[in-house]
Write a structure and sequence with these properties.
Chain lengths: ~120, ~110
């Protein structure tokens, strides 16, 4: 079965960086886009960026341009998200989620599977 | 950016009764292929969101048929025919036409 398993909680100081991983299993890792999203405490969901199946293309929300890097490692079927220049406002639960394209129908099924979430706390 | 607006933001419901959530987008979500790229998610307390409806009206795998999505263009609706206790949580609509943006969320509380 499809699983996305994220790395554990992190605590960082303002100005530092954090790297979160998302290990995928149970499907063809090289066939689906992967996204990163976040949810600040008591707030809604915010899309951060995506990486293509091959890993040669990324696209980020304008808000995070310049301080986010999403990468993927085919050998370990892992997608990583690094966020730098952290501020207290970056305290949130970060999620990976995959897109699924149904080959027969051509339907886009967005975020049909999610990771369990990784809490990142930014505090001095 | 496409702005998504949900209403109501809070919805107390009695088990067995119907419920309806509205979602409006700042621009049409209809692609040139005719499909509307609007999805619905439910986030239960302490859990990751789960997909309920994609492409405005297609029920995701395993989703009970009491959940129905409808709408086109800029106006969409999620209906629950008979609410059950397990349906409590926050419902989000999301557009997938241009990157992704979510509505503010609708908190469904079971009376």
């Amino acid at each position: 079965q499809v699983q996305l398993v994220q790395s554990g909680p992190e605590v960082r100081k303002p100005g530092s960086s954090v790297k979160i991983s998302c290990k995928a299993s149970g499907y063809d890792f090289n066939s689906e886009y992967m996204h990163w999203l976040r949810q600040a405490p008591g707030h809604g969901l915010e899309w951060m960026g995506l990486i293509s199946p091959s890993g040669d293309s990324t696209f980020y929300a304008e808000k995070f341009q310049g301080r986010i890097i999403v990468s993927r490692d085919t050998s370990t079927t892992t997608v990583n998200m690094e966020l730098s220049s952290l501020k207290s406002e970056d305290t949130a639960v970060y999620y990976c989620a995959r897109d699924h394209y149904e080959l027969i129908t051509g339907y886009l099924v967005p975020f049909d599977y999610w990771g369990q979430g990784t809490l990142v706390t930014v505090s001095s | 950016d496409i702005v998504m607006t949900q209403s109501p933001l809070s919805l107390p419901v009695t088990p067995g009764e119907p419920a309806s959530i509205s979602c409006r987008s700042s621009q049409s979500l209809q692609h040139s292929n005719g499909y509307n790229y609007l999805d619905w998610y439910l986030q239960k307390p302490g859990q990751s969101p789960q997909l309920l409806i994609y492409m405005a009206s297609k029920r995701a795998s395993g989703v009970p048929d009491r959940f129905t999505g409808s709408g086109s263009g800029t106006d969409f609706t999620l209906k629950i025919s008979r609410v059950e206790a397990e349906d409590a949580g926050i419902y989000y609509c999301m557009q997938a036409l241009k990157t992704r943006t979510f509505g503010q969320g609708t908190k469904v509380e079971i009376k």
